[in-house]
Amino acid sequence: MQSLSKLLDQAFNIPGTKIKIGLDPLLGLIPGIGDFIGFLLSTLIVVAAILIPASPWTIVRMILNIILESVIGLIPVLGDAFDFIWKANVRNRLLLEAYLDEPSHGKKDKTFVVGTLALTSLAALAVSIGLGYGLYLVSIKLYGLIISLF
Prior knowledge:
This protein has helices at 2-9, 23-27, 34-51, 56-73, 78-86, 88-101, 110-149; strands spanning 12-13, 20-21. It has 150 residues and is mainly alpha-helical. The protein has one domain (2-149). Helix 1 packs antiparallel against helix 6 and helix 3 (34-51) packs antiparallel against helix 7. It is flat.
């Protein structure tokens, strides 16, 4: 999990700076599908937290981090800049590590696990629909532009 969060948010140093970036913000630069791929990769950390199991509050916070990054990531330019700064995967790893450092943990609640997986699936569906609609709008604009050239 530490390796995945580092790969997604801190894999590379920007030369001449102390700034680190990962694959997640770089994927976000790919129109249409990049943010969705980043979202799917980010959910792997949440799935790991569910399987551990982390507390419901920890998992909800992790999901909100991903949803926030994914929704704002859909906004052209601003979303890409936010992706470079927010680093939801590192935040989620730190949340999970803080939970694991607590002296006592609750028992695994299967209902919560199923509910959380369902919520994550619905969030993935919402992001997919948003990306699909965005691609639809872009394709209409491109079609209009191409038609106007002829």
